[in-house]
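RECORD TYPE: inverse folding
INPUT: structure tokens
STRUCTURE:
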């Protein structure tokens, strides 16, 4: 297995404050220490670039730094290095798990112990920390799924509206492979998520038209009086997930983000919502054509799905 390695040295005048600053940066990058003064990351492009920028900063203040690629460390097998990464993630997840367990206990005591607004704020903070850890959890620490399940359980306890949506009839994806689709112009969160779902799970080359009315033979979504729309307290994306029985890891997290931006009912606390909503708002304000917004949205949702899937999927055993 290949690794990217960073090592640096500073003059004694710079050693105190600068070394602490660089150490904190290395921690946020997810780097582990193979030997004294030697920091290691997997050879992902973003890891190499992060080390290169850090090396430049060291050099700009008169220090020495080197970034190298190595295929092995003498006396330190790859399995041990992977375990070092997992131990680091495990300790961070354990902190979240402890705080989340305390929050869950308070919620079980009822409103006198903690109100819903405070509970949602605490949950959002925990989820932000979870996302920060997952970003540098390069080897899928097993505790990630345990923490994710705990936070999801807390989310369910905090749900204000406990109403159950009427059962949605399951339909076969294969019956919609050749469908022509239509939705309203100026696509925002729910319509873009549905367009991604169609291209990801039904037909990557599907025809999707943007119009105020559907033509004969077209399948409408996120419009009034069409086949796929809001059902109860489900947004259209959730309706389509349920209709086609889609339960892939990461989809539920994506659905929570879409739901919160679309319905704004405080049902879910997700740290990703504010940033994603701002990006989508910017595309609309820029006056981009519907098809261009769709193309950008497809790429954005694919990236979100990949990241959320990684957070939701159990680690592979070796």
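DESIGNED SEQUENCE:
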């Amino acid at each position: 297995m290949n690794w990217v390695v960073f090592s640096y040295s500073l003059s004694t005048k710079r050693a105190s404050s600068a070394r602490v600053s660089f150490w904190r940066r290395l921690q946020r990058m997810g780097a582990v220490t193979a030997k004294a003064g030697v920091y290691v990351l997997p050879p992902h492009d973003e890891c190499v670039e992060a080390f290169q920028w850090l090396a430049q900063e060291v050099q700009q203040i008169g220090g020495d730094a080197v970034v190298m690629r190595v295929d092995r460390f003498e006396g330190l097998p790859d399995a041990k290095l992977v375990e070092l990464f997992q131990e680091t993630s495990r300790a961070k997840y354990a902190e979240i798990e402890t705080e989340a367990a305390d929050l869950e206990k308070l919620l079980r005591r009822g409103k006198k112990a903690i109100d819903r607004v405070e509970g949602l704020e605490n949950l959002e903070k925990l989820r932000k920390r979870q996302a920060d850890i997952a970003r540098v959890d390069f080897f899928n620490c097993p505790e990630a799924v345990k923490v994710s399940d705990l936070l999801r359980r807390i989310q369910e306890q905090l749900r204000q509206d406990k109403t159950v949506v009427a059962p949605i009839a399951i339909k076969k994806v294969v019956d919609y492979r050749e469908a022509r689709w239509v939705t309203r112009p100026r696509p925002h969160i729910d319509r873009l998520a549905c367009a991604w779902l169609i291209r990801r799970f039904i037909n990557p080359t599907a025809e999707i038209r943007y119009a105020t009315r559907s033509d004969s033979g077209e399948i409408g979504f996120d419009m009034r009086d069409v086949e796929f729309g809001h059902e109860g307290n489900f947004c259209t994306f959730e309706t389509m997930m349920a209709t086609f029985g889609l339960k892939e890891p990461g989809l539920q997290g994506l659905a929570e983000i879409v739901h919160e931006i679309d319905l704004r009912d405080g049902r879910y606390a997700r740290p990703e919502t504010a940033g994603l909503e701002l990006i989508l708002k910017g595309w609309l304000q820029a006056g981009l054509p519907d098809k261009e917004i769709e193309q950008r949205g497809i790429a954005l949702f694919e990236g979100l799905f990949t990241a959320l899937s990684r957070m939701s999927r159990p680690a592979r055993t070796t």
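NOTES: The chain has ten helices and seven strands.
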